[in-house]
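pasting for ref
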Amino acid sequence: MLITTSYDPLPEQLEQIALLQRQLTLLKGVDAPPRIIERRRYSMEQLWERYEDPDILLVTRRRIEYYHEQQPALFFHPSTAAIRVKRLRNGEQDTLMELAQTKPGDRILDCTAGLGSDAIVFSYASQATGAVVALESQPLPYLLLKQGLAAYQSDIDGLDEALRRIQVLQQDYMDFLHEQPDRSFDVLYFDPMFRKPIHESSSIKAIRKLADPRPVTDEAIREACRVASRAVIMKEHRDSGELERLGFNELHRSTTKIAYGVIRL
């Protein structure tokens, strides 16, 4: 992997790429230290050809972006979470928050955080008295999420505070669940890579290569039901059959291709 900056970098960008190199070297799942290179006036395509490495982390003045060949750039952004928070502020309902019966003070565990869209909404809905723990086992999504939650600034009241409250851990959710006492979280949430992909989603396409491809197991759901006190919720493609396989007895299929399974406790 290569790390570089945008054209004409500021001193803080140069400091950040050195910090990123150290951070990545320490993360689980990183086989070799990334290499810092000067951007000069090379395009992304020229960098790929010159250094014969398909993976580039680009530190811009606003954010960190990950490039892999011709895939869309991957970076942290609240995206649909910002829209959902705006709707909550306007008194509108959010399907996932309604299914979880989220309220101030709730403790939420997002077992498959990705880039954190649902964790952000959970954090906003559970407010300052609540707590959201977001688990991401894969190094690059974890790094982008952790950096983005700490640095992103929005113009939506309460959103920045919700971002900063989320605790992000690079940990396999099964290992984490085994360590937790019974009923230590109110709601556990899974949003794994869909068994039946939604190919038209560019954001999912960008992260699919980096994400944990393993399906959720029966053991994971049993452990989740032990650790949760109110509900275990899973998001999947509505036609995948995964929710039925795992024993979710309450199914909510939307008019899109998304479905939620709920186990009430």
